[in-house]
User: Which sequence fits this backbone?
């Protein structure tokens, strides 16, 4: 057998060997990362009584965020474990004896790392915005369909942004409220207090808001700057409650965050930014993050080659530990850079 043919066979063999641990690692770490969301999912099930299909969708939508970290780790471990096994089985020694040098083992590792870069890039560039957008929409729909779960009777509810709500009784079927008290502090230096004997919860799906319609009540408005108080009685009064980030569980933003933007959208906002404020730098950080995470596959994959070849079976655990140490160091530095960038 000629040497080029032997090298080609070895390259195919290595590529085949890389994929099995890669798939196992990806599935395993995806399961571990999803388990970190179990408390939040349990909270949604308890509060909203979600169907299994919605829970599965929520887990699916959160998966791209985890995959952009899992895939580089899986690429590194796949290459590392493959070369560790080959070293332990003396396959590396046999290849050397057959005239195949260590440098000739690099092309398959480079190709596999490039495959990991492309896969992570697709997840980061397209999967993450898709997942974040759909997860937020699903969470918003869930909150709107289960408004009765957001409000507790005889409790001061701070679920909605800038609004404190107290209800003596609520009928889940008709969503009728009894003895309603509202303190609205959404306007700066103005505190508005609304009291009504009855009210009704309505949905405004188009604006992502909840409308609370009150009947035969009274509004008291205190202006702190002017030191004045205005009192108005009403027969019907509608107050909009935002499902936006606040103190409560329904904190769902209707504006697009950095992670929900595609690369083209990030570039557009960066180039058209009038001032370089905190929002500008967050967009810039997210843009660079979409390329730094895929590149981790190449850096960590190349690092795994010498680690796997150097440590034999007796030192296999040490080699894996060292590889994981480099992996953690990379993401610690990445997180530190992210924190310093936001500061």
Assistant:
């Amino acid at each position: 057998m000629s040497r080029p043919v032997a090298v080609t066979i070895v390259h195919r063999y290595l590529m085949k060997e890389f994929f099995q641990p890669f798939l196992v690692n990806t599935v395993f770490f995806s399961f571990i990362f999803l388990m970190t969301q179990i408390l939040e999912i349990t909270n949604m099930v308890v509060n909203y009584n979600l169907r299994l299909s919605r829970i599965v969708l929520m887990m699916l939508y959160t998966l791209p965020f985890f995959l952009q970290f899992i895939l580089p780790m899986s690429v590194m471990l796949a290459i590392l474990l493959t070369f560790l096994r080959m070293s332990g089985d003396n396959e590396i020694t046999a290849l050397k004896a057959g005239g195949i040098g260590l440098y000739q083992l690099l092309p398959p590792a480079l190709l596999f790392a490039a495959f990991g870069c492309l896969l992570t890039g697709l997840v980061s560039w397209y999967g993450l915005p898709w997942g974040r957008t759909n997860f937020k929409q699903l969470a918003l729909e869930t909150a709107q369909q289960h408004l009765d779960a957001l409000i507790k009777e005889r409790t001061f509810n701070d679920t909605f942004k800038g609004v404190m709500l107290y209800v003596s009784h609520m009928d889940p079927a008709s969503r009728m409220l009894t003895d309603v008290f509202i303190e609205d502090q959404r306007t700066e230096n103005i505190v508005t207090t609304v009291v009504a004997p009855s009210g009704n919860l309505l949905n405004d799906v188009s604006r992502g808001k909840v409308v609370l319609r009150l009947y035969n009540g009274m509004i008291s408005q205190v202006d702190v700057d002017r030191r004045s108080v205005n009192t108005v009685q009403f027969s019907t009064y509608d107050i909009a409650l935002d499902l936006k980030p606040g103190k409560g569980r329904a904190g769902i933003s209707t504006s697009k965050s950095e992670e929900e933007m595609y690369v083209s959208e990030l570039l557009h906002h960066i180039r058209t930014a009038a001032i370089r404020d905190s929002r500008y730098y967050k967009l810039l950080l997210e843009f660079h993050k979409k390329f730094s995470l895929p590149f981790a596959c190449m850096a960590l994959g190349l690092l795994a080659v010498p680690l796997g070849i150097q440590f034999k079976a007796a030192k296999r655990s040490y080699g894996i530990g060292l590889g994981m140490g480099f992996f953690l160091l990379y993401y610690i530095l990445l997180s530190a850079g992210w924190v310093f960038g936001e500061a």
